[in-house]
């Protein structure tokens, strides 16, 4: 590997264009983001010139403990050198059992079993299947603007048309409800009956009085409501009491309440799981991303014992769901090391402190700049939402950008952040004027301050020189449209 990394350095873009995703290559060139990345450490990426960039993408949130954490690397190396009896298949292994034990010890008492997986989407697929089999119902509710992954089942719970388009028909009986709207959820769950019994029935599958795990019944009642505690696309926070209300309504309707913590879990929001902010007790919790320190693909579904036992309810049903690499030793070792690092370095509390500081430094921008509509976040899941500037000229330039490509303004601000300030960050979703940050939880206070200052500088200059921005925007729009 050392030979390949040294001898072929600089060929990344050409290889990508030839064999991987040339349209992504065009976007990178258009934005000038086509750096040769040669190293990474903590909250930073390092390019071939040795320049360090503050990485606020965080690999879509996998690097909670920081990139290339020595403890995670050592754990993977140790387990490889131990020549363990990995993946016996008709057999069980120690490390995935210990990982399940440790994850469940940190999760609410409502979950008591783990289904190992290799990605966030795979954990969501498991949740859909287990909800259907455990309840004998087929309908699955999800929130508008939700993102649960891009495999076909998870995509059926996707609240954004740009991801869904062209891949249908998706799973039947999956239905969107507006995020934050309990009345709409209640109607979708079955209306008046649910309202009458909400709060009075015993929880989850155990109290649901639903058929035992036979074939899925067609149509009708709801198997599960799957929701991100904080939505990743746009960093949308739930209204107060929404998630508790949703859980109560689900219980009353005999539907399973599923929290997708793939992005919010592992300390990201200042709690180990975001659900702790609201004292939730879901029937299932999906985790992935940061769980293995960004080193090894991983995912896991934490499931209530009752739901689990309804699905895996006899020896002939013991392997009815799973995947070849699920629970492998490398992923489990990296997962165990990550849990230890989170605790030893106090990273959950740090996420909360740094997130509070970031909000304190950036919320004043709402009053200072007309283009800043909102700044929001929880822990180190942060976003700034932008809107049209004041004045006729500004508004007409904004309109032009939006016509060329919705969300272009936010994308334009990421360019000077990258080139002038060496900060890599992302727009929070397609056609969205929202910039988002998911830094490593190890981020230093000085770097949080540097980001806030850089952000203010690019926002201020976008208001001072809207026409320069628009010229660049038009070039970008042409590039981006062609790149599609
Ligand atoms: C909330 C949520 N669920 C599921 C997924 C899918 O995870 P993966 O990309 O590992 O399949 C993501 C990925 O961004 C996510 O943010």
Blueprint (SSEs and pairs):
Layout lengths: L1 H6 L4 H8 L2 H10 L5 E5 L2 E4 L4 E4 L2 H4 L8 H12 L12 H13 L6 E5 L2 H16 L3 E5 L8 H4 L5 H4 L9 E4 L4 H8 L2 H6 L6 H5 L13 E6 L14 H12 L2 E5 L23 E4 L11 E5 L1 H7 L17 H16 L2 H16 L2 H4 L3 E7 L2 E6 L5 H13 L3 H14 L1 E2 L1 E2 L6 E4 L7 H20 L1 H18 L1
Parallel strand pairs: 3-13, 5-6, 5-7, 7-8, 8-9
Antiparallel strand pairs: 1-2, 2-3, 4-10, 9-10, 11-12, 12-15, 14-15
This protein binds pyridoxal-5'-phosphate.
The site of pyridoxal-5'-phosphate has 14 residues, from helix 7.
Describe the structure.
The protein is globular, with a radius of gyration of 23 Å. It has helices spanning 2-7, 12-19, 22-31, 58-61, 70-81, 94-106, 120-135, 152-155, 161-164, 182-189, 192-197, 204-208, 242-253, 305-311, 329-344, 347-362, 365-368, 392-404, 408-421, 445-464, 466-483, and strands at 37-41, 44-47, 52-55, 113-117, 139-143, 174-177, 222-227, 256-260, 284-287, 299-303, 372-378, 381-386, 423-424, 426-427, 434-437. It is α/β, with parallel strands linked by helices and 484 residues long. A 7-stranded mixed beta sheet has the order 4-10-9-8-7-5-6, sandwiched between helices. It has 2 domains: 35-65 and 346-483, Aspartate Aminotransferase, domain 1 (Alpha-Beta Complex), CATH 3.90.1150.10; 71-344, Type I PLP-dependent aspartate aminotransferase-like (Major domain) (Aspartate Aminotransferase, domain 2), CATH 3.40.640.10. The two termini are 34 Å apart. The protein contains 21 helices and 15 strands. The chain binds pyridoxal-5'-phosphate. Pyridoxal-5'-phosphate binds next to helix 7.
């Amino acid at each position: 590997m050392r030979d390949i990394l040294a001898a072929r350095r600089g060929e990344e873009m050409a290889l990508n264009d030839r064999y991987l995703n040339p349209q992504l290559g065009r976007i990178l060139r258009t934005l000038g983001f086509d750096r040769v990345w040669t190293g990474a450490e903590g909250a930073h990426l390092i390019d071939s010139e040795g320049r360090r960039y503050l990485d606020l993408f965080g690999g879509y949130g996998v690097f909670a403990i920081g990139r290339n954490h020595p403890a995670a690397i050592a754990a993977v190396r140790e387990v490889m050198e131990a020549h363990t009896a990995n993946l016996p298949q008709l057999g069980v292994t120690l490390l995935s059992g210990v990982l399940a034990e440790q994850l469940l010890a940190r999760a609410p008492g409502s979950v008591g079993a783990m289904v190992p997986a290799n990605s966030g989407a795979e954990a969501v697929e498991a949740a859909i299947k287990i909800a259907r089999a455990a309840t004998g119902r087929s309908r699955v509710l999800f929130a508008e603007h939700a993102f649960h992954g891009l495999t076909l089942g998870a995509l059926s719970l996707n609240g954004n048309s740009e991801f869904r388009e062209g891949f249908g028909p998706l799973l039947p009986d999956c239905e969107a409800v507006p995020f934050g709207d309990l009345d709409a959820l209640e109607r979708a769950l079955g209306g008046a009956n649910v309202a009458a019994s909400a709060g009075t029935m015993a929880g989850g599958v155990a109290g649901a009085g639903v058929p035992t795990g036979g074939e899925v019944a067609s149509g009708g009642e709801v198997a599960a409501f799957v929701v991100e505690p904080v939505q990743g696309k746009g960093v949308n926070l739930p209204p107060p009491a929404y998630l508790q209300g949703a859980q109560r309504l689900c219980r009353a309707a005999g539907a399973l309440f599923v929290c997708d913590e793939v992005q919010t879990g592992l300390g990201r929001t200042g709690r180990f799981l975001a659900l702790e902010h609201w004292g939730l007790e879901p029937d299932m919790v999906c985790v992935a991303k940061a769980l293995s320190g960004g080193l090894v693909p991983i995912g896991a579904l934490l499931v209530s014992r009752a739901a689990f036992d309804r699905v895996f309810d006899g020896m002939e049903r013991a392997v009815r769901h799973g995947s070849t690499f699920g629970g492998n030793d490398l992923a489990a070792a990296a997962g165990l090391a990550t849990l230890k690092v989170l605790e030893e370095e106090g990273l959950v509390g740090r996420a909360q402190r740094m997130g509070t500081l970031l909000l304190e430094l950036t919320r004043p921008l709402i009053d200072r700049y007309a283009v800043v509509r909102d700044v929001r976040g929880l822990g180190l899941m942060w976003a700034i939402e932008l809107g049209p500037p004041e004045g006729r000229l500004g508004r007409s330039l904004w309109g032009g950008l939006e016509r060329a490509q919705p969300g272009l303004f936010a994308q334009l601000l990421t360019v000077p952040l990258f080139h002038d300030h060496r900060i890599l960050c992302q727009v929070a979703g397609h056609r969205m004027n929202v910039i988002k940050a998911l830094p490593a939880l190890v981020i230093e206070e000085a770097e949080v301050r540097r980001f806030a200052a850089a952000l203010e500088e690019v926002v201020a200059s976008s208001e001072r020189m809207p026409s320069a921005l628009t010229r660049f925007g038009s070039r970008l729009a042409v590039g981006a449209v062609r790149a599609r």
